[in-house]
């Protein structure tokens, strides 16, 4: 609060709640003995914030006081399993509705975003393998509550949507349970996390590498390998920074994923149409003579490879962290086995694409590759908009349509509109290509 009449001003209007807690924790460290933190007794965050050293000394004694001071300066790291994550979602929703009642609509909306991204989203993959319909219904109810805040609906309607969302959360918690997953479910979850998130990246990489090898562009192949290799390093580094150095919120994570997905959508669309334009021998020979696969072209392929892999890697690691906790010690081998199986399947798929493409006529190979990349552009567009919606950048507008998450199809007007734009762009660019071919025929 500061001291009136002195040079010690109040920081009430200069620091937010988080910064005040950071400052309080820092000051608390002045009287702490770090060695005392290693104790059998662990204080949770609520106790560390609520109790004072004098209260701990009076009730528990000097040894507990030393532990309390040390843990207050450096709170123990507590891993959050599915039960804790769902509890966090419910508790944050309660804070959100309280802020809405108090007229703090922006804060209420931000809390609703955090409730989903920092809690429920991290158990979605596990819940999908138990009951995908419950996962979808819970996600939709959370998004409906969030949208009611954004639309400024009357408090009665907002509370009604909140109760519906909390009811779905309880149903999800009941399905996940607290005793860990079975071996088979841990294995399937470990398999599907990597298979689902890595499939799109493998398809893009395999298409690019097959094209470059079939056309003798070995120097560009090395650039692509450097691109996805750097993506692995960058993804692991991002996770390490978020876990141990800086605070990366769920909204920032989804914003990053959404932007990279939309960027990848544009890039693979460009590459797909580019390949379609050069599927005929004459067009390809003209391209070879122009020597366009120079430094700029190789750099473009490397950038596309980088973003195709980096886009999902950070989130995959977070999903595996949550699954690891949920599976428990008895299920760790199953999680590792599932991930290893998915890796083998993805590598096998890439091998099949590379081997099979080498036996195809050049025109047919270019046509298939172009179609695959254009289809992935539509998928990425849907995923990108959905990620931005989850980050709170866009609202949601549910429509009567089917969901197919693997193809980026979501029953939402914004997501479907983005995919429609991608499809229209493909049709227009392909149409332009056809017209160019017709003009070229008389000349030849």
UniProtKB/TrEMBL annotation:
Entry protein name: Cystathionine gamma-synthase
Residue ranges of the TM segments: 187-212, 224-243, 255-275, 287-310, 330-354, 361-381, 413-431
Alphabetical UniProt keywords: Membrane, Transmembrane, Transmembrane helix
Topology of the protein relative to the lipid bilayer: Multi-pass membrane protein
Record GO terms (molecular function): electron transfer activity; ferrous iron transmembrane transporter activity; heme binding
Pfam families linked to this entry: FTR1
Main localization, broad class: membrane
Similarity remark: Belongs to the oxidase-dependent Fe transporter (OFeT) (TC 9.A.10.1) family.
Top-level taxon: Bacteria
Localization, UniProt: Membrane
GO CC terms, sorted: high-affinity iron permease complex
Annotated source species: Pseudomonas prosekii
